[in-house]
Design brief:
Helix content is 67%, strand content 0%. It is mainly alpha-helical. The protein has a domain of 57 residues. Helix 1 crosses helix 3 and helix 2 packs antiparallel against helix 3. The longest helix is centred in the N-terminal third of the chain and has 26 residues.
């Protein structure tokens, strides 16, 4: 029962933040042509945030320039999640449900999912 409650709370918190992030992205002009918002471009931008996190680690993971209480990698990973939440809010996708379902499936997989790494 605890996992179900935690899942409901996770989905509720995600949906609330995704709605806020998506509204902000619309306000900032990222969804002016929502009908033609290019999902491939959105995924590429998510990927760029991950690449920036990798570069931060390659350079010793210094404090972030804009949010110095966090490391650069933390901020770049946060940027990626923000972009994912924006897409989730904009497309009406149930990403938190998919995360929970994938976690349940992964419980059934072997050590390291049968891979070396």
């Amino acid at each position: 029962m605890g996992e179900i409650v935690a899942g409901i709370e996770f989905k509720s918190a995600w949906d609330h933040q995704a709605e806020r992030i998506h509204a902000w992205a619309k306000e900032k002009g990222f969804w002016e042509d929502a009908e033609n918002r290019n999902m491939g471009e959105m995924i590429a931008l998510m990927h760029s945030e991950l690449s920036e996190a990798l570069e931060a680690l390659r350079h010793g993971n210094p404090a972030d320039e804009h949010c110095p209480e966090y490391s650069s990698a933390e901020i770049e990973l946060a940027d990626c999640v923000i972009r994912i939440m924006d897409a989730s809010g904009g497309r009406g996708w149930n990403i938190p449900g998919a995360i929970l379902a994938k976690m349940e499936y992964n419980k059934t997989r072997p050590h390291k999912h049968g891979k070396k790494f």
